[in-house]
Amino acid sequence: MTLDRLRRLLADQAILFILAGLFLVCSLFVPSFFTARNLVNILKQGAIIGILAAGLTVAVIAGNVDLSVGSVVAFSGILALLFTHRNFADAVVSGTSTQGPLLLAAAVALPLVLGAVVGLANGAVVTLSGANSVIITLGSLAAVRGGALLFSDGRVTYGAHNALFDAIGQAQLATIPVYVFFFLAFVLVLEGVLRFTTFGRSVYHVGTNLKASQIAGIPVIRVRVLTFIITGFAAAIAGVILAARLNSASGQTGTGWEFDAVTAIVVGGTSLFGGKGSVIKTLLGTLLVTLIINAMVLLNIPSPYQYVAKALIIVGAVLIDISTRKEAI
Amino acid sequence: MSRSLGRTLVRDWKILLILLGITAVLALLRPVFVSSENIFNVLFQVSINSTIAVGMTYLMIGGDFDLSVGSNMVFATTAAILLERFGIAPGIVLAILASTLAGFLNGVLVAKVKINSFITTLSMMIFLRGLVLIFTDKKTISGSTDVLFSFGYGSLFSLIPYPVLVAAVILVVFGFVLARSAWGRNLYAIGSNGKAAQMFGINIDSAKIASFTLTGALCGVSGIVLLSRLNSASGTYGMDTGLDVISGVLLGGTSLAGGEGSIFRAFLGVLLLGVLSNAMIILHVTPYLQQVVKGLMLITVVALNAAQAKRAEFR
């Protein structure tokens, strides 16, 4: 009886145990892994992509995938930096323009609107046509990245070191960047929305059985489109924070992030078939993937091997998922 | 009678009509478009994509798809260069075998292990791209000899370029196999109704594995054709191949939901995409805008096809 319960706990919380085990192993055997500085590093590296993955998780639970998130990161970052541009900043510093704070607000708001609009477009096309979201968003991946490249003329966009804007990516609280705390708060809010609101419950229903949800009177189209909007919005937040942290963005920024986010989601245990999963699990998945990459860097393993490792991690995670599901049946 | 014939013509051959229209307009606007040099350029680009599109069509008819084709193609190119020390021919054979193996692995993971084709082929895409970056050390590597140029730039009776010839043979042979063999028939059955196909005793797993393996092998062949033109390999090659091939096949009217499509129509779709890309280059559209157009086109085509299928379902 207790053995049975233990086994079920292991299956349900597999990601937590794997994360704890790996953390222990790395702390013991990887040089300079268990130092305050490196642990903060892991959080720093994981937080921005984690925000994106958290948003994407909502769409995945509803049974869809959005591959355009990495492109949204690039476009929103470029857009944000453009509004902190030197000319604008000069205007603020010299005080000749009263529009300074307004422009800064635009630097944050416009990218977020862009992300939401891309999400709205993805969601509308996928739900209204009933087409496969993988292929539709493969198209928007190309279109949005092309748009970002077009918009920035293929060059790197630099910010103008606007102190307020930089703070978004560089302000610290007890040596930990503020956006790490934002990441944690964002995850908790999304998790709360999924668990305790009608919309959240609808997301799970829609992901489990689309037709039944429709018959049950759930506003299926609205729910699905909203999950895409949340995804695009989260990707834009990640783009703005990344731009503020690096003070630069280009059409190449965020390349492959859609894959990293999907990896974190699947590793966390959210099912790609929809209807099952949680944002907190995605947080754990993000930390696990970041931890593995971090350990590889500390062990001086060349970066191309990270691709191979990521591919193996995701297949491994799916295999574990499938084997536990079989046991459950 | 003739009116319904006209309607059928528009419905089934609209791509051919669009293709002819675009060609006519461009020929008038920019005569260079119909120069023999440009036509060969288009045909070469199309020959690589349509070779891979053959495998993709098999997959899509069976209800799957493969995102790893671009990586797999460059993987073959890279492997062939690295294996040159064992001789050109053995190197080529081994490289194609390696790509075939990657395709086979995709098939086993999808059919036997039951990981869906999205995750499987996305992982394979990253995995093979990683291998290419490892093998090339993130640089562009070149082959030591350029004997393959006589193939890549040569032509039969100085008329038909060899790469185009290879693609044509593959299109005809596998178009025939798809239309006439039990494998092809089974794929149509699996794609339209998997459960019914299973009840009829069709071996779903082996049909799917065979399609993925074929796709891998054709990626290998395309990788070698690429090698015969460029004599180099790099982790940045073939980034758009997957997008282009999938768009082309869907443009040809093959359904993403499975059960529908043909090699010839897939070829027309890839050809249309190739002509459009070439037209944009000739009209000096920036590469970035080309990417936007390609992406929007894929979305439009898929959405329209899916909406059409949905309407047919309700009828």
Secondary structure topology:
The complex is a heterodimer of chains A (329) and B (315).
Chain A: H1 2-12, H2 14-29, H3 36-61, H4 69-82, H5 86-94, H6 100-129, H7 133-151, E1 157-158, H8 163-170, E2 172-173, E3 176-177, H9 178-196, H10 198-208, H11 210-215, H12 220-246, E4 248-249, H13 257-268, H14 279-298, H15 304-328
Antiparallel strand pairs in A: 1-4, 2-3
Chain B: H1 2-12, H2 14-29, H3 36-61, H4 69-82, H5 88-111, H6 117-136, E1 141-142, H7 149-152, E2 155-156, E3 160-161, H8 162-180, H9 182-192, H10 194-199, H11 204-230, E4 232-233, H12 241-251, H13 263-282, H14 287-314
Antiparallel strand pairs in B: 1-4, 2-3
Structural class by helix and strand composition of chain B: mainly alpha
Strand order of the largest sheet of chain A: 1-4
Major sheet strand order of chain B: 1-4
Q: In one word, what is the shape of chain A?
A: globular
Summed over residues and divided by their number, the pLDDT of chain A gives a mean of 85
* Cα-to-Cα separation, first versus last residue of chain B: 24 Å
Written overview of the protein:
- The complex is a heterodimer of chains A (329) and B (315).
- Chain A is an all-alpha fold and 329 residues long.
- The model of chain A is unreliable at 91-99 (pLDDT under 50).
- Chain A is built from 15 helices and four strands.
- Chain A is globular.
- Helix content of chain B is 75%, strand content 3%.
- Chain B has 14 helices and four strands.
- A two-stranded antiparallel ribbon of chain B has the order 1-4.
- In chain B, a hairpin with a 3-residue loop joins strand 2 (155-156) and strand 3.
- Chains A and B meet through helix 6, helix 7, helix 13 and helix 15 of A and helix 6, helix 12 and helix 14 of B.
